[in-house]
Write a structure and sequence with these properties.
Helices cover 52% and strands 15% of the residues. The protein has 386 residues and is an alpha+beta fold. It has 3 domains: 114 residues, Orthogonal Bundle (Butyryl-Coa Dehydrogenase, subunit A, domain 1), CATH 1.10.540; 107 residues, Beta Barrel (Butyryl-CoA Dehydrogenase, subunit A, domain 2), CATH 2.40.110.10; 148 residues, Butyryl-CoA Dehydrogenase, subunit A, domain 3 (Up-down Bundle), CATH 1.20.140. Strands 1-4-5-8 form a 4-stranded mixed β-sheet. The protein has a 4-stranded antiparallel β-sheet with strand order 2-3-7-6, with helices on one face. The chain is globular. The chain starts with 6 loop residues before the first helix and ends with a helix.
């Protein structure tokens, strides 16, 4: 399947790439070392249209499809996976889910500010004791007049410590289990909402990850996202697109590993010749290229199917394909960065070379947004269902 980008898609790919190379590449190591994305980048990315790329123009976005959004995320991750992760958490996990499931008042209130970079969004689902078992969350929400009172905590939340708006899942009916979950839009100023510790991660440094704490947090009833006790519908609604986008980011990391390896192998000389002449180095480069091209086919086929599914396509096929895309691409990216470090030798083991950062970043794609083990179960269950 040969994917030919439209004129707009080619322009967006070029613009994102140029921005990342010019604005972000010079400070990528600084972002990693300081574990901080400069705040000024958010309104700048908003002005360029990156934060609202897939949001309808009536809410401050541009209304592009999943394929176009994935192109952007791939290009971001090629230069700075941490920035790509934070952008994805705000613009996809928060804003996109809000647009799909929110009412008109909620969308008018929050989406323009998320698209402009005035607000940073996050998704609060994972808890200290509920990761892959998402429906096992223990955060509660009890009705009190015109408000809900939230109690509990969320962990491993991308953008959590710096977010202005959190899309949070809580149990409104503990006895109903998965059928008693509700989604809420929680502003950072709401009383009883605070940030816990910021986590010190080995990879994706700069993309703030931490804990959200709710201690009798009062959330107005108008900030219920979707229907009460129907939060699982909101949760599942965007999972396939999330998997496609994570796969796109992993693809960008694998491509960057190949680019750096090609450059280094041709410039590094041993025994009187560039190491790119050595057969075992050539084999690694060939394997990296082959797996990234195979991953590209999976990622963009899944992205294309996601767009068709929005128009009435087959959801079951998308579940399988999105799961396969993120499973294969995440593991292929990990293999690519491992080979890239090996090609760089001792230099690849130092903090001075970008390949070290990619090596640390890549592992997340096998863990976040569902582990590789859970993805395999998901794919198998869909196969057996038919």
């Amino acid at each position: 399947m040969d994917f030919q980008w439209t004129r707009d898609q080619k322009m967006i790919e070029k613009n994102v790439r140029e921005f990342m190379v010019k604005e972000i590449a010079p400070i990528a190591e600084e972002i990693d070392q300081n574990d901080k994305i400069p705040k000024y980048l958010w309104p700048k990315m908003g002005e360029l249209g990156f934060l609202g790329l897939s949001i309808s123009d009536e809410y401050g976005g541009f209304g592009y499809d999943t394929v176009t959004y994935t192109i952007m995320m791939e290009q971001m991750a090629r230069v700075c996976p941490a920035l790509a992760l934070s952008v994805g958490a705000s613009s996809n996990l928060c804003a996109h889910n809000l647009e799909r499931n929110g009412n008109e008042e909620q969308k008018q209130k929050y989406l323009p500010r998320l698209c402009s970079g005035e607000m940073i969004g996050c998704l609060g689902l994972t808890e200290p004791d509920a990761g892959s078992d998402a429906v096992g969350i223990q955060t509660t929400a009890d009705r009190d007049g015109d408000d809900y009172i939230l109690n509990g905590s969320k962990m491993f939340i991308t953008n959590g410590p710096e977010s202005d708006l959190a899309l949070v899942y809580a149990k409104t009916n503990m006895e109903k289990k998965s059928k008693g979950i509700t989604a809420f839009l929680v502003e950072k100023e709401f009383p009883g909402f605070s940030y816990g510790k910021k986590l010190d991660k080995m990879g994706h440094r700069g993309s703030a990850t931490g804990e959200l704490v709710f201690s009798d947090c009062r959330v107005p009833i108008q900030n219920v996202l979707g229907e009460v006790d129907m939060g699982v519908r909101v949760m599942m609604n965007g999972l396939d697109v999330e998997r496609v986008i994570v796969a796109g980011m992993a693809l960008g990391v694998g491509e960057a590993a190949l680019e750096l390896s090609l450059e280094y192998a041709q410039g590094r000389h041993q025994f009187g010749q560039p190491i790119s002449n050595f057969q075992l180095v050539k084999a690694k480069l060939a394997n990296m290229y082959t797996e990234m091209e195979a991953a590209r086919g999976l990622v963009y086929r899944a992205a294309s199917l996601a767009d068709r599914s929005d128009r009435g396509g087959k959801g079951t096929e998308l579940h399988k394909l999105a799961g396969a895309a993120v499973l294969f691409t995440a593991e292929a990216a990990s293999r690519a960065v491992t080979d890239a470090v090996q090609i760089h030798g001792g230099y690849g083991y130092t903090m001075e070379y970008a390949v070290n950062r990619l090596y640390r970043d890549a592992k997340l794609y096998e863990i976040g947004a569902g582990t590789s083990e859970i993805r395999r179960l998901l794919i198998a269950d869909e196969l057996l269902k038919n």
